[in-house]
Amino acid sequence: MLMPARRARLALAALLAAAVTAGFEAGAIGFVLPALRQATGASASEASWLLSAWVAATLLSVPACALASRRQGSVRLLRGCLLVAVVAGLLACTLPLLAGVLVAGVLQGLAYGPLLPLVAAVAVSGWPPERHGRVLGLVSLAYGLSFVAATLGAPALLSGGWRHAFAFGTGLALLSLLLAVGLASDAADRGQPAGQAAGQAVDWRQAVSRPLQPVVVLSLGTGIGQAALVWLPTLALALLGVPLADLAPLMVPMLLGGLAATASVIHWLDRIGPRRLVAVGQALALAGLLLAVLAPARAWAFMAGSAALGYGIGLLSGGPLRYAAARVLPREAQGLAQGAVAWITDLGLLAGSLVLGHVAGPAGPAEPGSTAGAGIEQALLVAAAALLLCAPALLRLPAHTPPPATRQA
């Protein structure tokens, strides 16, 4: 469904709005939990159920939408997810009991989990191949900026009450839904199965087919790398002994590295393809982990390591693997391809979090040289080893062949 220029601009606005909505919810959820506990008197375990419900619903909804996209179409599913997000937000804003908020959390997980893979599938179907890297990079940039904005702005937003974050997210979802109404429908949205539209059936086994296997392995490693990022603040507390109030400046290089990586994806992905960017991302992620863990316990070494890790994981997460999936599976299977990348990445994040948490052991005092610091260092070295084990899959990514020039959408 390649689009004329004006419709392409409106479609891009709809996709970026959906990415902003997903980024805000992902960035704000960590701040909503303590605000919810403070307002309702819920225990830590009760409040954690909201995050657990979110994650479980996400792991269910991503593959479900990937399979449903074969017949329902990515555009229709994108609109449906945004509609569910609006309903979930309204429930979270109005239901008085914690159980009601948990129900809303499940609905939000079902809605927000598939948003980015659906956005990527629509982008691959709606723009010519030579524009895929730029559009996917812009989507990642919108998500990343929204995530950072939510991380910085959620505390102020929640100062007026824990429901304010849900209300703001609901407004973003509603705006995205209104913009998505104008998206052109693909073949499946017009009532014709996508596989039939292309003259062939789309088989779910394509998600684990040989051409997609290296992308799956690299996506798993990316998820583990994302889990390592989550441990960086704890590492800073344990190794450097800084108070929690002084932690934010140490995290700035990591955030800037991620944003710089997304800018690199926008500029280079269509030119040089995914293989080189993935190689650079893996190398810098490994270097960042080793520098943060093995270098002297100094602020400059930690910040340099976090910047390299942020840039490396930002490259891996910012579009090259989605781009590679778009190249190895046909257009009618893009809902399945992009869903597989997202689900395997989430699975790597979840598995990595569990394994790294087990290796790190119980939390101890945040002091240099403490047992807790040594456990966290070991956990991050395990993450580095996992990234290294996934690296050979890079050699199986197809070489980049620039697509033939077509009229710009």
Structure description:
This protein is mostly helical and 409 residues long. The chain has 2 domains: 5-184, MFS general substrate transporter like domains (Growth Hormone, Chain: A, Up-down Bundle); 206-396, Up-down Bundle (Growth Hormone, Chain: A). 76% of the residues lie in helices and 0% in strands. The chain has helices at 5-40, 44-72, 74-94, 98-112, 115-126, 132-158, 163-180, 194-197, 213-240, 248-272, 274-294, 299-317, 320-328, 334-360, 371-390. Helix 1 runs antiparallel to helix 7. The relative contact order is 0.15. Mean pLDDT is 80; it is low at 187-201 and 363-369.
> Largest sheet at a glance?
none
Give the fraction of residues assigned to helices.
over 70%
Query: Can you say what the CATH homologous superfamily of the largest domain is?
Result: MFS general substrate transporter like domains
Helices and strands, in order, run as: HHHHHHHHHHHHHHH
Shape: globular
Task: Kindly give the count of domains.
Answer: 2
Termini separation? 11 Å
Q: Which architecture of the largest domain would the CATH scheme give at its second level?
A: Up-down Bundle
- How large is the count of helical segments? 15
Q: Looking at the chains present, what oligomeric state does this protein adopt?
A: single chain
CATH fold label of the largest domain: Growth Hormone, Chain: A
Strand content: under 5%
Q: Indicate the radius of gyration in whole angstroms.
A: 21 Å
Structural class: mainly alpha
Low-confidence stretches: 187-201, 363-369
| E-strand count | 0
The whole-number mean of residue pLDDT values reads 80
CATH C-level of the largest domain: Mainly Alpha
